[in-house]
Amino acid sequence: MTCIFCAIASGEIPANRVAEDEVGVAFLDAKPKSPGHTLVVPFEHVSDLGDGSEVFVRMAPFVTRVAQQVVDKLGADGVNLVVNSGAIAGQEVFHLHVHVIPRYADPDAVPSSVDGVLEALRA
Ligand code: AMP
The domain containing residue 18 runs over which residues? Predict the structure, then answer.
């Protein structure tokens, strides 16, 4: 069966992309925990941290840039970086990814629509 994150990374299926570099892509989570919740996904298919620790290390600079983008463009006051590695840890998509979850002191100051979030992140 095709990996959904491989399909998104290759452009085969659409996603709300907000950034890309040589290691992978970043796109909005379909079920955001907060406005701007973004997934950073490597082009290389590795299932989890056990399978892809070297890929994870290579992703770190890109993850850091995406976290900064979310803070700067959306005015987040903090950010959670989360990796669910393994089913027991809550992983549902078995292509390594990092959740970038912005946190806001004042949730009312944040764009509430996906279009608003996208516009701010792409500005
Ligand atoms: P995890 O539990 O760490 O495997 O999280 C997988 C995440 O992928 C969840 O937060 C889902 O909402 C998200 N997700 C699954 N399919 C898609 C998709 N096609 N586009 C965007 N986000 C997705």
Answer: 4-122
